[in-house]
Design brief:
By secondary structure, the chain is α+β, with helices and mostly antiparallel strands. The chain has 2 domains: 59 residues; 85 residues, H-NOX domain. Helices cover 51% and strands 17% of the residues. Strands 1-2-4-3 form a 4-stranded antiparallel β-sheet. Strand 1 and strand 2 form a beta hairpin. The structure holds protoporphyrin IX containing FE. The site of protoporphyrin IX containing FE has 25 residues, from helix 1, helix 6 and helix 7.
């Protein structure tokens, strides 16, 4: 997993909890990287799982809730740092429809070692979008947070139905409908 994701996660912990909390979970996890992440570095996604687990223990918030909240935070960071992906897109379904064939394709050029999920996208009409997420890193909760914040960002009410197709968050279908 790219360091940019870890850097943003620790930013969220500092902002939502405290800088001491960020130091504390890094110390608690005995990470191979030592917690010194650079944006372009690559680190095991297990370090993210460990950091989220340590944060969950200390805050009492379930890990899936923390990962979803991180997805929401991360979406707005992507908006700040990659405004070009938002050019000319006026609604969330049009944005999300482009995740696999446009956005993550560009991400791979920017971060050559990025370990990206696969999304199978189906857009039967303007008001509906189906996103089938698959990843060996089991980040379905992160995907949900990103999707939710994309919808909030554009403001048009969209309902989300989540169907877990395994019990690890590695295979999830999201059905989105304009309400
Ligand atoms: C401007 C928009 C976006 C940018 C720049 C972006 C970029 C990235 C980057 C850099 C990573 C990390 C790759 C790695 O760890 O090696 C990533 C992972 C990921 N992205 Fe995106 N992304 C964007 C939007 C989205 C959206 C809207 C979704 C949800 C539908 C999404 C779903 C994910 C997920 C779930 C991962 C974690 C890796 C995994 O599940 O295997 N991304 N993305």
């Amino acid at each position: 997993m790219k360091g940019v994701v870890f850097v943003e996660f620790l930013e969220m912990v500092e902002a939502e909890f405290s800088p001491e909390m960020a130091d504390d979970i890094i110390d608690a996890c005995d990470l191979p990287s030592g917690g010194a992440y650079t944006s372009v570095g690559t680190y095991s996604h297990r370090e993210m799982v460990a950091l989220v687990g340590a944060l969950s223990e200390r805050t009492g918030t379930p890990a899936p809730d923390l990962i979803r909240a991180f997805g929401e935070f991360l979406f707005e960071r992507f908006h700040v740092h990659h405004a070009e992906f938002f050019d000319g897109i006026n609604n969330s379904l049009d944005f999300l429809e482009r995740i696999e064939d446009v956005i993550h394709v560009q991400v791979r050029k920017l971060y050559p070692n990025a370990e990206l999920p696969r999304f199978e996208i189906d857009r039967p009409d303007q008001d509906h979008l189906s996103m089938l997420y698959r990843s060996d890193r089991h980040m379905g909760d992160l995907a949900e947070g990103l999707i939710r914040q994309c919808i909030a960002h554009y403001g048009t009410p969209i309902s989300i139905q989540r169907h877990d197709l395994d019990d690890k968050g590695g295979h999830v279908r999201f059905e989105l409908s304009r309400t």
